[in-house]
Amino acid sequence: MTLDQFTDEQLIVEVRENDKEKYAEIIRRYQLKLSHYLRKFIKNSDELEDVLQEVFIRTYRNLYAFDVNKKFSAWIYRIAHNQAINHIKKNNKGSISLDEHEWEIVDEKMDLKKEVDVGLAKIRVGKGIASLKDKYREPLILYFFEQKSYDEISDILRVPTSTVGTLIKRGKEALKEFLENK
Amino acid sequence: MTIQNQTEKIVMGEIKSGRVKLRSKYLFLVEKFGLGSALILTVLLAILFFNLVLFYLKSSDNLGYLSFGNGGIFAFLQSFPYLLVISFIILIFIAGFIIKMTDFAYKKPFGYVAVGLVSFVLLCGGILTFTNIAERIEMESYNPRMTGRFMKPFLRGGLGERAGGVAGRVVKIQDDYILIQTPNNLIKLFTTKIDESFRKKLQPGMFIMAIGQNTKDGFEVRQIRIVSEQENQMVRHGVHRRFGNFINR
């Protein structure tokens, strides 16, 4: 059985009980995704790298706390989320920079009003998301940019699934209001 | 080198060197067990305290003062079991906090969980009133043992002296006063404002409740009524403990 064939959860059992070097595979699977996610909170690349390393170290240390019957992805995102929040608390938050792909997602999924100057609109959407309250910003980022389901967001943010829907809806409304008023 | 490659190298380097280690699974088990035990203990204590609140209200003189109307409110407030009620509320908050900390309830709206928790505690506390647990705790509170010493402050309010009310057993009836035994002392009730026909109904051994004002020499009665022993069980227990079961003994 090659490493690719292992599920995340099987890999965790292996790392815990047999081979800690298999943790490198977990890092390979999640470093891009988490780096992408953390970039929504941390602009500075050095700080981002530090936080990302801390996420993997914390995850490794606490592997026995993970219930292998649950989704590992949600668990590690939860750790990344907590680390990002801690980082934000220590530092001032700035605007969020969106790349081309993410801008398309925002435009398509959020049904924002058409902008003549797309470049300007991108900056404004980034600023708009950054200006949202944390409780709206976090589910919006997870849903629109990380493509997480309501259930996964519920696991990551530790809120009921129904609340996730409400927060995303209100977040979208707040973002639209921001864009219309600015 | 990209951030990603560097991250893998640094993190795996820390792990292989042994500087970063897995925390023992027993540590997590203890943590989980500890939280579970704390939750169970808190809920059990909340049930017990709610049961004691009901017992206190039922068996102390507290609610009896309300039967005097507005005049009895002061005595009611003085004898209210604040410590028991506050402890009960704090226990409910602690249980809610532990539930929030644990994983099993976050999928459900916390409001529902809180309502469920409070309903469960109230129901179980209510069911416990059919047992004699509260009475046994009250008895225990007179013992010098640790559990007795722990429970005493919670129930002592049911037997304390109040500035605006008094309850006890009649031992002597004189022209201008009635002598009663309370869980704390012998008290003279000055009854000059009381109807003579009521005084004639009084007999030694009867239990009474009165509102009025505590003075240096005794208690100036404004309103008084005879109560059954069942109404004032805590007072009766207190009086019996202090003076015995027989009048004039």
For the structure shown, list the relevant keywords.
heterodimer; A: 182 residues; mainly alpha; Rna Polymerase Sigma Factor, Chain: A; Arc Repressor Mutant, subunit A; B: 249 residues; OB fold (Dihydrolipoamide Acetyltransferase, E2P); 2 domains; 9 helices; 5 strands
Mean of pLDDT of chain B: 88
The named CATH superfamily of the largest domain in chain A = RNA polymerase sigma factor, region 2, helix turn helix motif
Determine the strand fraction of chain A and express it as a percent band: under 5%
The main β sheet of chain A shows up as:
none
Contiguous runs where pLDDT drops below 50 for at least 5 residues of chain A: none
Strand content of chain B: 5-15%
Helix content of chain A: over 70%
**How do the SSEs of chain A run, as a string of H and E?**
HHHHHHHHH
Structure description:
The complex is a heterodimer of chains A (182) and B (249). Chain A is an all-alpha fold and 182 residues long. Chain A has two domains: 3-90, RNA polymerase sigma factor, region 2, helix turn helix motif (Rna Polymerase Sigma Factor, Chain: A, Orthogonal Bundle), CATH 1.10.1740.10; 100-181, Arc Repressor Mutant, subunit A (Orthogonal Bundle). Chain A is 70% helix and 0% strand. Chain A has nine helices and no strands. Chain A starts with 7 loop residues before the first helix and ends with a helix. The mean pLDDT of chain A is 83. Chain B has 249 residues and is α+β, with helices and mostly antiparallel strands. Chain B folds into two domains: 26-157, no CATH class; 160-243, OB fold (Dihydrolipoamide Acetyltransferase, E2P), CATH 2.40.50. Chain B contains nine helices and five strands; from the N terminus they run H-H-H-H-H-H-H-E-E-E-H-E-E-H. Chain B has a five-stranded mixed beta barrel with strand order 1-2-3-5-4. In chain B, helix 2 (25-59) runs antiparallel to helix 4 (82-101), helix 4 (82-101) crosses helix 5 (110-128) and helix 6 (133-140) packs across helix 7 (146-155). The N and C termini of chain B lie far apart (96 Å). In chain B, 29% of the residues are buried. Classes of the chains: A mainly alpha (182), B alpha+beta (249). At the A-B interface, helix 2, helix 3 and helix 9 of A face helix 1 and helix 2 of B.
